[in-house]
Amino acid sequence: MLVLLAFIIIFHISSAALLFVATIDSAWWVGDQFYADIWRICINDSNCTEINDTYSDYTTLQAIQASMILSTVLCCIAFLIFLMQLFRLKQGDRFVLTSVIQLMSCLCVMIAASIYTDRRQDLHEKNFFFYPEQSSSEGRYGYAFILAWVAFAFTLVSGIMYLILRKRK
Prior knowledge:
By secondary structure, this protein is α+β, with helices and mostly antiparallel strands.
C-alpha cells in the first residue's frame, strides 16, 4: 500500500509539474526564427513582445491563459486536499473530492489546448500568426503545447485513480 501511495503522489506531482511547464514556457508554437506561447512572441531570441489587446485573437488567448492557470491551480489544490483526506478520511472511504477537483483540472487543460489547436488552424488558413511579418505556415507546435496534452492525459488518469482509490491500512 505504501508503494501505491508513493506512486500516486509522484504521479500527481509530475502532473502538476507538466502543467506548470506548459503554462509558463514559451514553446507553444515554434519556427526557425521565432517562438510563441500564450503570453508572448519572440523573434530571433531577442525581440520579445508581450501579447496584449492589440492582437486580433487576444480574447481567445485570454481564455487559453485563464484555463491553463485554472488547471494548474486546481491540480495543486487537489494535491493538498488529497494529503488532507489521507489523514482525515476513515478507512474504506474514497477520495471523491480530490477526484472531482483533479478532473476539473483535466477539463480546463483540455479546453485550453483545444482552443489553441482550433485557433491555430484558423490562423493557418489565413497564413497569419500574431505577428504580421511571420507566416504561421513556417512554424509547428512546440513541446509546451505537447506537454499540455500530456498533462491532460496525466490529470485524467490521476482523477480516475482517485475516484477508484479507497483508503486502506
